[in-house]
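Researcher: Let's continue the batch. This sequence belongs to Rubisco LSMT substrate-binding domain-containing protein, and it's 410 residues. Same format as the previous ones, please.
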Amino acid sequence: MEHPKLAGAAEEAFAGSEIVGMTAWVLATRAGGEGEGGPAAALADAVRGRGQHNPLLWPEEEAQRLLRGTSVLPQLPARRAEVALAYERIATHESIDARALGLTYDAFAAAFCDVLASAVYLPSAECFALVPTVSTVMAHGDCGGGGANGGGVGSDRRRVAEGGGGSRGVLVDYDLESECVVVVAEREYAAGDEPRLPWGEGRNSADLALTFGELDAEGKARDDFLTFQFGMVQNDSLYTVKAGVLAELGYATDGQEFPVFEDRFPTQLLNYLRLSRVTDIGLLAKLSMETDNILSQINEYEILQLLMGDVRERLEEFENTDTVGEQQTLRDAELNGREELATLLRLGEKRVLQGTMTGVRTRLAPIRGVPTKGGGMQDPNADLAEMFESFEQLPKRIATGKIFDGLFED
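Model: Same format as before. Here are the structure tokens for Rubisco LSMT substrate-binding domain-containing protein:
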């Protein structure tokens, strides 16, 4: 089931890129290459439209409008550049007549997203593949509008597989002995039950949107998360010491990523930040990446304020931080597939950020206030709090022209 010229061009241009190779095969088969009218053509047609809602295919204006504030939007330029490079290398290959094959960028990008949404990973064979029947099990429901209850990107086919004892539904693999793809049920199925493939485990909404072009309607079921990047302070007098500690533990000194979830953030994230801001070398002995140990009250206050600032900055990138409105939109509005995907994505990421903000504030509460004899609360770090609040307000004061307010008043 290979088109010799396209397959050869794909292999030469992108050795080892199975997704690009399968994209070339799908395009050739649809254009009337080998296997026309047979099972190859049926499979190529079966995956058509599978990735039609992938943000990689959206016009720029639509992406900017619908994905504002999400973690998908800043990823689009690099992802699109990769697709464009793949197309250019294949379309300009000496063995290819792009016009005769109808090989345009739009056709290539659409087929690429179809393959990306349909490919199945076979662990024993260590490769991705398009598999008849299995790929159609993973197919979309109705891809039209209708909001969260109308199929499309919120289809039940993409919900997390259910079952007792942590079962995920079915597993797909390649059996080396029989040289066949096998589907193994991880729980009992009754007649008429729909087998479900694993969906979204260990992946966040942004990753799923850019891979499958769809999301399940309830990201909580997947334990949705966002990633944040942190680094050491370059001009820190203890930078060399800290870099050595991190190297030994397997962490980077810059651009180190950590996930944050709606109801928690990892201890390693807190300890990384504690290390980045500690100024007393004697406190390093108290640090353990696996244990939640506060090094000092001032250090803890500083890193929580910094984390809160990062979360607030991400929230402010959205047009608004309202989650109730997003839920109402999903219930009541007549949404097309792209609008539904974007609404689900915004809702999920806002929930994660707001949950993280709540978690940081909860940790800050006992540090910021202690009981006084008068029964009130007194902030032991009032001066430090005022300094951080001033820093946080700087961008707004600059934007509103109020940066110099009160500067020349008596």
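Researcher: Any comment?
Model: DSSP finds 15 helices and eight strands in the chain.
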